[in-house]
Design brief:
The complex is a heterodimer of chains A (110) and B (114).
Chain A lengths: L1 E4 L3 E5 L4 E9 L5 E6 L6 E6 L3 E5 L2 E6 L4 E6 L8 E8 L6 E3 L3 E6 L1
Parallel strand pairs in A: 2-11
Antiparallel strand pairs in A: 1-3, 3-8, 4-5, 4-9, 6-7, 7-8, 9-10, 9-11
Chain B lengths: L3 E4 L2 E4 L4 E8 L5 E7 L6 E7 L2 E5 L6 E7 L2 E7 L7 E8 L9 E2 L3 E5 L1
Parallel strand pairs in B: 2-11
Antiparallel strand pairs in B: 1-3, 3-8, 4-5, 4-9, 5-6, 7-8, 9-10, 9-11
The chains are: A mainly beta (110), B mainly beta (114).
């Protein structure tokens, strides 16, 4: 089975940096995704990590440590529009099966 | 629009009704998915189709019946649902079933069972 944990809620200030953590336990690992979901909208793909290390994409970066079963999403220079739910999802070796965490609701305040 | 279109956006149905949810994508993707999103619960995988073949049925009750007539269309047929089935039903697609480019989600159908 799979178990994915991420904080339920986080609050940060506009212009700051925030790190959203995700830990997972899985019987087979084939990559980890981060998605962003604004209220009432579809989740949108942010990043994919399958090898250890940091992937940077503009203001967003994602890190993976396979040995620790750990990932984080780093958001820099926060903007009000970054207020959303951030979903961590693990792709396991059963083709096409992504299991999602509960999501972290991030609130960015002025 | 994300490239994955779901209809209807909202649906209210009685427990004895039969209705269908529709999902359509013209992204050239070969894998399509149904997910259920309930309040305060994670996205739950329901069904996976890869090249029109169902590859995953995640212990979903038989009152939910998927259909994939071609790689661009996916349906979810609903009958004799329960109030606890009220949720947001999300369709997604990907290049193939284990694509590193992730899923493209539709905006979902908000289902209320009364």
């Amino acid at each position: 089975g799979q178990n994915i944990d991420q904080p339920t809620e986080m609050t940060a200030t506009e212009g700051a940096i925030v790190q959203i953590n995700c830990t997972y336990q899985t019987s087979g690992f084939n990559g980890l995704f981060w998605y962003q979901q604004h209220a009432g909208e579809a989740p949108t793909f942010l990043s994919y990590n399958v090898l250890d290390g940091l992937e940077e994409k503009g203001r967003f970066s994602s890190f993976l440590s396979r040995s620790k079963g750990y990932s984080y999403l780093l958001l820099k220079e926060l903007q009000m529009k970054d207020s959303a739910s951030y979903l961590c999802a693990v792709l396991n070796t059963n083709a096409g099966k992504s299991t999602f965490g509960d999501g972290t609701t991030l609130t960015v305040k002025p | 629009e994300t490239g994955v279109t779901q209809t209807p956006r909202h649906l209210v149905m009685g427990m004895t009704n039969k209705k269908s949810l529709k999902c359509e994508q013209h992204l050239g993707h070969n894998a399509m998915y149904w997910y259920k999103q309930s309040a305060k619960k994670p996205l739950e995988l329901m069904f996976v189709y890869n090249f029109k073949e169902q590859t995953e049925n995640n212990s979903v009750p038989s009152r939910f019946s998927p259909e994939c007539p071609n790689s661009s269309h996916l349906f979810l047929h609903l009958h004799t649902l329960q109030p606890e089935d009220s949720a947001l039903y999300l369709c997604a697609s990907s290049q193939e079933a284990d694509s590193p480019y992730g899923y493209t989600f539709g905006s979902g159908t908000r289902l209320t069972v009364v």
